[in-house]
Design a protein that fits this description.
The protein is mainly alpha-helical. It folds into 2 domains: 52 residues, no CATH class; 176 residues, Cytochrome p450 (Orthogonal Bundle). It is 47% helix and 6% strand. It is built from 7 helices and 6 strands, in the order H-H-H-H-H-E-E-E-E-H-H-E-E. The strands form 3 sheets. Strands 1-4 form a two-stranded antiparallel sheet. A two-stranded antiparallel ribbon has the order 2-3. Helix 3 crosses helix 5. The N terminus is likely disordered. Protoporphyrin IX containing FE binds next to helix 3 and helix 7. It comes from Dictyobacter vulcani. Belongs to the cytochrome P450 family. Keywords: Heme, Iron, Metal-binding, Monooxygenase, Oxidoreductase. GO terms for molecular function: heme binding; iron ion binding; monooxygenase activity; oxidoreductase activity, acting on paired donors, with incorporation or reduction of molecular oxygen. This is Cytochrome P450.
């Protein structure tokens, strides 16, 4: 991030980043001194394995887990809530029959694609595609939103259907780098939607949908979601 007089936000981001790295350093020292039954303690300890992670590797792993595990799930919950508010008949169906929650969660993952792009890949060989060629060595960014709305894969792909039977979405990516936190995210999502629908049965949007604004990041994230309940 470049910090300059005409980029005050850069300055804020840099200092926030520095504070976050320092937080991680302190956390690692604490867990080294007093290990507990938690993930960071597990990472800092040798655990009988030959190789341990260097401090740099530890910081980046913890950093990745916190970042990758926070905004993503937040987007699933906020985008999913918006999708349900925009489809009151589906929200009503879910309120009447909470056993639909697991299938509904998969559909909300597909329909809202909380992470819009998969991580970077490089082509191992020339790949002809739609009259173009992705050359060996080219960087490839796959749009998960596009894949999740592919009409060749999903019947009525533009529709939200919480009872969708075959739902092989790629909201968590695919292959060797598929999201390591997917089981946790699914659990968090199921708990969040079950609780939200039970506790706030009269949830409504407090603004017109066209007044909602979105952040411009590789995530699909709302700046805020004003509701009444
Ligand atoms: C709704 C929530 C989530 C969504 C939609 C999501 C989505 C994704 C996607 C699309 C990728 C890239 C996969 C690829 O390139 O093939 C990814 C990677 C990753 N995710 Fe998630 N994620 C979520 C929650 C989480 C949580 C809760 C954690 C951890 C606590 C997590 C940790 C990671 C990590 C560490 C990677 C990198 C994996 C690798 O490169 O091998 N994610 N996630």
């Amino acid at each position: 991030m470049t910090v300059s007089a005409d980029n005050p936000k850069g300055e804020t981001s840099s200092s926030a980043m520095e504070a976050f790295i320092n937080y991680n350093k302190t956390l690692i020292e604490k867990k080294r001194a007093h290990p507990g039954d938690d993930l960071v303690s597990g990472l800092v300890q040798n655990n009988g394995q030959e190789e341990t992670l260097s401090d740099k590797e530890l910081i980046s792993t913890i950093f990745l887990l916190i970042i990758a595990g926070h905004e993503t799930t937040l987007n699933l919950i906020s985008n999913g809530t918006l999708a349900l508010l925009e489809h009151p008949e589906q929200m009503h169906m879910l309120q009447q029959d909470p056993s639909l929650i697991p299938a509904a969660l998969e559909e909300l993952l597909r329909y809202t694609s909380p992470v819009s792009l998969c991580s970077i890949r490089w082509a191992k060989e020339d790949i002809p595609m739609h009259g173009e060629v992705i050359r060996k060595g080219d960087m490839v960014l796959v749009s998960l939103i596009a894949a999740n709305s592919d009409p060749a894969k999903f019947t009525n792909s533009a529709e939200l259907d919480i009872t969708r039977q075959i739902n092989r979405h790629v909201a968590f990516g695919k292959g060797i780098h598929i999201c390591i936190g997917a089981p946790l995210a699914r659990m968090e999502g199921q708990i969040a939607f079950t609780t939200l629908l039970q506790r706030m049965p009269h949830l409504r949007l407090a603004v017109k949908p066209e007044q909602l604004t979105w952040n411009h990041t590789p995530m699909r994230s709302l700046t805020r979601l004003p509701v009444t309940f």
